[in-house]
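INFO  loader      accepted 1 record
INFO  loader      residues=223
INFO  predictor   begin
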Amino acid sequence: MKKVCLLLLILVVCYASFGVAHVLPQKPIPSKKLYVYAEETIKEDDIQVAVIGNAKKHLIADSAVVMAYFESTSTQFANNKNIEFDMIKEKIIESGVGDEDVSLDYFSSFPRQENEQKYFKNCYSFSIYIKDLTKTGDVLNILKSCSVQILDVRYQVSNLKNEYDQVLDSAMEDAKTKASQIYNTDNIEVVEVKEKSVRYSSTLLDDEQSSIDLQAQVEVVFG
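INFO  predictor   done
INFO  writer      dumping tokens
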């Protein structure tokens, strides 16, 4: 009888243990999770805006530089290279251009041979600075009459740097005006200024006058 009771007790304990093993909750499997947080680090007062400012000014040229070139031949090396150039220079001076405003920039003389005939080819390159534009037409006519090739006529403004500084200031003001409209206030600070470009465009009106358009552009960062 005692053996039967002991056997029954063992069976009850095993059943209880088996039942508890099925009803007890299992421990969750550990897992790695990644949390990403976004934090606003830029305040409204820290926002920066880049603005392009433009300005242009119409100018009338008050001087010009004429670049010219001509060639000649001689039977011997040109020991005195200025002889042919001086003849043309004298005519230019007679038109009213100063002696110091006519300069020889380049000269070369080298041998050539054609059909057993030897000779020297002389090349001259010179420039003429014309302070009085009313003399431009006369100078160009002299060069053409001497069979001189006109390479370029560059019209200039004597106080160009001062003029450009004014255009640059206007470009800055244009940028500030645009930025003030964006911020809706005039209380803005310039953080950085980048000079973007400088452009010149020349229009020949006649032999005595030329117009020049001077343009400046800046990129300004405001904060």
